[in-house]
Design brief:
Number of strands: 5
Radius of gyration: 17 Å
Distance between the termini: 37 Å
Number of helices: 6
CATH architecture: 3-Layer(aba) Sandwich
Largest sheet: 5 strands, parallel
Strand content: 15-25%
CATH topology: Rossmann fold
Order of helices and strands: HEHEHEHEHEH
CATH superfamily: Response regulator
Length: about 150
Amino acid sequence: MSQELNRKRALIIDDERLALEFYSEVLEAQNLNVTKYTCPKTLLNELDGNFSAFDLILIDYNLPDMKGVDLLKSIKKYTDVPKLIFTSESNMAQAIEVMRFGAFDYIEKNFSDTEALSVAIQRALKHRNLQVENTQLKKQINSTGISNINLN
């Protein structure tokens, strides 16, 4: 039971059901609890800015009603959790755009080789662990009353 509570959580949004299921399986194989959405507007309405439960967010670039980069911008307002953008139509301009707006990584969809996605997931989760550890250390230092250290 406690092992289940300690599992990292991932949020994935892709309007293509087969892709959503495929990538969900990749995430679950890495011992992540996965929450799935197919519609960006539904995701934003249901979560209402509450993205704190997630350790990683994966967003398809080509979504109906909203581009992945626009969803990225919306989510960025609420959380600094690493966000991966994946796409079937990879190009340099898209990559630069999403990285400029806060994506942790930009990955081309490839159903025959999941290694790039797996590596990106592991890098993002390590980054997330460092974020959490840094926040905890700052709290510990602040609670001890040490005022000579500037952590910002």
